[in-house]
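ligand=nicotinamide-adenine-dinucleotide
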Amino acid sequence: MRNRAVLVTGGAGFIGSHIVDKLINEGHSVRVIDNLSTGRLENLKHLEGNPNLEFIKGDLKNESDAEEAVRGVDAVFHFAANPEVRLSTTNPRTHFEENVVATFNLLEAMRKFGVRELIFASSSSVYGEPEEIPVGEEAPVRPVSVYGASKAACEDLIHAYSRLYGIKAVILRYANIVGPRLRHGVTYDLLMKLRKNTSELEVLGDGTQVRSYLYIDDAVEATMLAWKYSTGNYEVYNVGNEDWITVNDIVGVILNELKLSNVKIMHKPVLHGVGWPGDVKRIALRIDRLRAIGFKPRHNSIEAVKLTIRSLLNISNLE
Ligand code: NAD
């Protein structure tokens, strides 16, 4: 693929910053827009002074910021969002604005400046509680969280823009992605709780919630394959692992890595054993479509979590 001018929204965040690294390594010119709400400049510090990276501190909720970011690029990797599924239950408007309104502004800016390629970070949460796992891309979209609904709404907007204005779109429905720079989600939360208190651990849910976890390097690889090898105008890919584990498995990995025993584990289930209203009990993704374009995860779910814990434990100022 020839060198391109690429915008990464949310490029100071966890996944976005790894995408930036990959794009720069491949010789592309990268512009990042990030409002640093959950992202951190530290995630891009190693690229300081790199002539192929431009950083805009801006907010996609503002139309003018979206336009400034989009002007002159060939493709957009849209990773900016509020990624906290749990918060979307207590603060739905924030998620609507940060996910749906921001995406609408971005699409409008793309329409205005004739940018015709979009890679969108969607989520497995669009499936809600599927009847069977692993779930394929053709399964109904039935989100049970406002976060999932906001991602589904973005997908629909993108579909319409793709049909109406010729934007070639790749939708990536990510499972739980973990790795260095992670700052949210169950793996991070459990580790942080144990760093504060090694005698007891509160686990949201009954611990049997099922998920698949994909290591960030595998997620980046899948993202690049989908960008390079998608041929249609609107294509949807599940991005997950081939296996799945429970929250209790994650607790086991963390206790092992921290060499802790005799920790009192306190499960806090609500409803049918989930961690909070809007949490999903069982979700895992079928990844045949990704496999067909050459994807094979290098790490299984347990390895992905283990590598993540090790990388987070190496950070001296982790908070
Ligand atoms: P993250 O919070 O680290 O990254 C999101 C980034 O977007 C942050 O840097 C934040 O500051 C920025 N941002 C938020 N709102 C913005 C706005 N209005 N304008 C500009 N920047 C804004 O989260 P992440 O885990 O890296 O997630 C990246 C994307 O992938 C998100 O869209 C998320 O919903 C999606 N996703 C993540 C996972 C996962 O497991 N991490 C799973 C499924 C989907």
